[in-house]
Each structure stands twice: as C-alpha cells, then as structure tokens.
Design a protein that fits this description.
Helices cover 43% and strands 16% of the residues. With 367 residues, the chain is α/β, with parallel strands linked by helices. The chain has a single domain (48-87, 106-128, 139-365), classed as Glycosidases (TIM Barrel), CATH 3.20.20.80. Strands 1-2-3-4-5-6-8-9 form an eight-stranded parallel barrel, surrounded by six helices. Helix 2 packs parallel to helix 15 and helix 13 packs parallel to helix 15 (354-365). It is globular and about 60 Å long. It binds ligand G3I.
Length: 367
C-alpha cells in the first residue's frame, strides 16, 4: 500500500481550502482542547444519535472490535452516540477468510449482534479492495497458481458468501473500494490486471443478487469535491447505471487533514450523484493534524467535520454520515501517518473536542 501520497489534497485544493477555512462560521459549543468527560445522554445533553434521528440522517462510526471487547466506556459510548456502525477491519477479506475455504465470521457476527442489540444499522465494508487481501490469494496470483478464470470464480464466491451471510442485516455495502487513482485512471490492482475493468460491474451484480435490499456502494477517499478522481466515479456510475448495473450509492470517505485545507465544491459533487438517482454517504470521516494537538488546531479542525456534515444534511440523497472512529484512543491515523493524529471528535480519554460540539450543533440544526 502506498502511504506517502494517500489522502493528500492537490496544491490547488490546499490553497483554496486555506482560504475557505478562514471564512467558516465561528465555532460554537466549543468545549476546550482536552475536552469534557463522557456524560450520560439526557434531555439536556442529547446524544448525537438522538439529534441525528430528528434530522433524518444516520450517524455512524467505524468500530474497532478489540476495543469493543475490552473497553466498557467504548462499548457504552458507541451505543449511546451512534445509530450506524461499520466494521473497521473485521469484514475485510483477510479477516473473514484467512486461509482458503476457512472462514472466521466471529468478529463480524459479534458486531452485527452488538448493532442489533443497540438498535443500530450496519454498513458493510468492504467486498472488493486491493488492500487487506488474504496472503493465500495474493501469493496464488503472484506465483501463477491462481489464473484469471479461477480468480473470477473466487471473487464471485467471496462476494456471494459474505453478502448472503449478512443478508437483511446490512444497510449499505461498500462493494468496490478505492478503484481509481488520483488522476482518474483505474487503479492497477490485481483485479484490474487479472480480470480487466469488467470486474467492477460483475461485483455489483453479484452483491446485489446476494442481497437485493442492501444498497451497493462505490467508496473512496479524496473524492469529497469535484476533481479528476470523483469525476471518474461519476462517469463510471453513469455508464454502469445506463447498462443496468446496480450501482446505487457513492461513498465519500472524508479523510481530511487541516494542513491540506478543505476540499472545494462538495455540495456540487453530491448533487451530481444525486441527479443520477444514487444515494450518497460520508463513510469514513476524520480530520488529522500534525501533532502535538493544541487548542488552535482543534478549533481549526472542528468546522471540517461540520462542513462535511452540513453538505450531507444539505443533500436529500445523503442518508448517513460516518466517522472513522470517534476517539483518538483507537484511531488508525498515528500508526500510518507518523507524527499525525488527533483526528477524531473525542480525545483519548473520551473528552469531547470542538469537533464533537460542531457535529452536535449541525445535527441539532437539522436539514
Ligand atoms: O490483524 C493484525 C494482527 O493480527 C497483528 O497482530 C497486528 C500487528 O500490527 O496487525 C493487525 O492488522 C492490522 C489491521 O489494521 C487490524 O487491526 C494491520 O496491521 C493494520 O495495517 C490495519 O490497518 C487498517 C487499514 O485500514 C489497513 O489498510 C486500519 O485499522 C483501518 O482503519 C484502515 O481503514 C481504511 C478503510 O478500510 C478504507 N479506507 C481507508 C481507511 C484508512 O486507511
């Protein structure tokens, strides 16, 4: 996986983003950098999910299953604040089929059960990706022991098996994840190399056949605004839908960074997918910064969350807004971007940051 250029905004967006960010409305409901400790939800202190329900949108989070097992505060906060959950890792191929034909559904089953117990819906993530593939698959392709015809059958079986297992329990499936490069060319993954571009349409057909009620989504990062990559998705979705391929949603991950500025033309981007008759969603929102965190950076960060949320609330097609973890205690960011972090709405002690206040105010303001 290439990490150096992941989730970076081009220089132009950086410049316009910096200008935009200085023009955002003041941060209200700010709680201070270290945050305010978790309090039980009440009529005076409504949770995000209570406000989201009134606003007619799902508020979601990625869930770290190890934290869910080990950390009581994490379990309670996940239940209190969110009405949608996404498996951060445990529905990915390497997790569900670590050896060929040997499945491990337990962690994914646990999440689905937790969601049901707490009245939450589940976003399925993810069926076709170039990353977190099982070793048996990547080595088999690399050494030639798995050829193209067999690989296509393996992909079909993987999608069908996983989608059927959770049939009726998944609201949106990220069928195809991160298939374009920044310039709008198709990513040179093993799927493209071995199967050619038709694997995308095939994947959507197989997923939809296995659970016609789950919305099949495209999903990627750096596609918040109008740019070469999001336009490649728009063109692909338009073409596939004209051919009757069941592509029904566009997922915008939303991995932003305050040092790169806020992307331009987000509402316009959502509107063009909506005009195709598709659903949209923010699926993995976080906003990282160069550490150490300080008050100014936290205050700068907050409206990034708010502006993405407002874009969602401003689009009828946008039914859910998911953060990629809500506490810095378990965020993936520092492990991947050295020296960066503090990317979520709560600090490591579950204290609410200004970003949490902005999410709450945005949801309270509604659509
Ligand atoms: O499961 C192994 C474990 O057995 C081993 O002991 C441990 C040692 O490092 O690694 C564990 O795997 C880690 C895995 O997360 C599960 O915790 C990997 O090292 C680690 O690289 C992996 O990172 C995940 C990353 O996707 C992989 O690309 C992050 O947690 C996860 O947040 C991140 O999520 C992606 C979305 O799926 C797609 N969009 C981008 C987003 C952020 O990169």
């Amino acid at each position: 996986m290439k990490l150096t250029n992941r989730f970076r905004m081009p220089a132009l967006a950086l410049l316009s983003g910096a200008l935009l960010v200085t023009g955002v409305t003041g941060v209200t409901g700010v709680t201070g950098v270290t945050g305010v400790a978790v309090q039980p939800a009440s009529a005076h202190n409504p949770s995000l999910r209570v406000l989201a329900e009134r606003a007619g949108v799902r508020i979601g989070t990625a869930v770290d299953m190890a934290a869910l097992a080990d950390d009581r505060t994490y379990r309670r906060t996940t239940a209190r604040e969110f009405d949608s959950v996404t498996a951060e890792n445990v529905m990915k191929w390497e997790s569900v089929e670590p050896q060929r034909g040997v499945y491990d559904w337990k962690p994914a089953d646990d999440l689905v059960r937790y969601a049901r117990a707490h009245g939450q819906v589940v976003r399925g993530h993810t069926l076709v990706w170039h990353s977190q593939l099982p070793t048996w698959l990547t080595t088999g392709v690399a050494d030639g022991s798995i050829g193209a015809t067999e690989l296509r059958g393996i992909l079909r079986d993987h999608i069908t098996t996983e989608v059927k297992r959770y049939k009726g329990k998944i609201q949106q499936w990220d069928v195809v994840n991160e298939v374009f490069e920044e310039d709008g060319s198709l990513r040179n993954s093993i799927w493209l190399q071995q199967l050619g571009p038709s694997y995308i349409a095939d994947a959507f057909r197989w997923a939809h056949a296995a659970d016609p009620r789950a919305k099949p989504f495209l999903n990627d990062y750096n596609v918040e605004g109008v740019n070469a990559k999001s336009t490649a998705y728009y063109d692909l979705a338009k073409r596939l839908r004209a051919q009757g391929v069941p592509v029904q949603g566009f997922g915008i991950q939303g991995h932003l960074a305050i040092q790169y500025g806020f992307p331009g033309r987000v509402a316009e981007n959502l509107a063009r997918f909506e005009a195709l008759g598709m659903q949209t969603a923010f699926t993995e929102v976080d906003v990282r910064m160069i550490l150490p965190v300080d008050e100014a950076k936290s205050v700068t960060q907050a409206p990034y969350f708010r502006r993405l949320l407002d874009a969602c609330l401003g689009a009828r097609s946008c039914k859910s807004f998911t953060v990629w973890g809500y506490t810095d205690r378990y965020s993936w960011v520092p492990g991947v971007f050295e020296g960066q972090g503090a990317a979520t709405p709560m600090d490591e002690e579950y204290g609410r940051k200004p970003a949490y206040g902005e999410l709450r105010e945005g949801l309270a303001a509604g659509r």
